[in-house]
Amino acid sequence: MTKIWFTSDQHFGHAGILTYCSRPFADVQAMDTAMVQQWNDRVGPMDEVWCLGDFCAGRDAGHYARHLNGRKHLIVGNHDRHARKWQGWASIHDYHEMSVAGRRVVLFHYPMRVWNASHYGSIHLYGHMHNALPPTAQSCDVGVDAWSFAPVGFDQITHRMAQAI
Questions:
Q1: Strands 91-93 and 71-75: what pairing?
Q2: What is the mean pLDDT of residues 30-58?
Q3: Does pTM top 0.85 for this prediction?
């Protein structure tokens, strides 16, 4: 059965993120290797992964995407200025809405205070914050800094949001 995963803010190849986010890796190569391993330990080849931006530093995102399991979709983040030229993505969006487990899910790189159908039970998943903004009952940071440097499943996300009530 195909699973759907969410993630954000890997910053593959970005040495500065180690200091900015106090990531526990000796260097950028160790960070990249660990995150590829974590991703592939969870995500199967037929699974879908929605990356909510800031995938990598530089132009060669295809280098990283080729080593990651799953059918990958990108929501463009502020560090993804060359994203439209990147290879290895099933789709690239600025914003996207989808249904998961019967719930409307709004995907955007940045957190929003309100979003489409937020007053009718839709939820919002975002990145950008590097675990600096706590989840609410309707929104959650899916970035790697909030989820042990790996993609996260919808059940885990909704469980964390339910605890935020």
A1: parallel
A2: 95
A3: yes
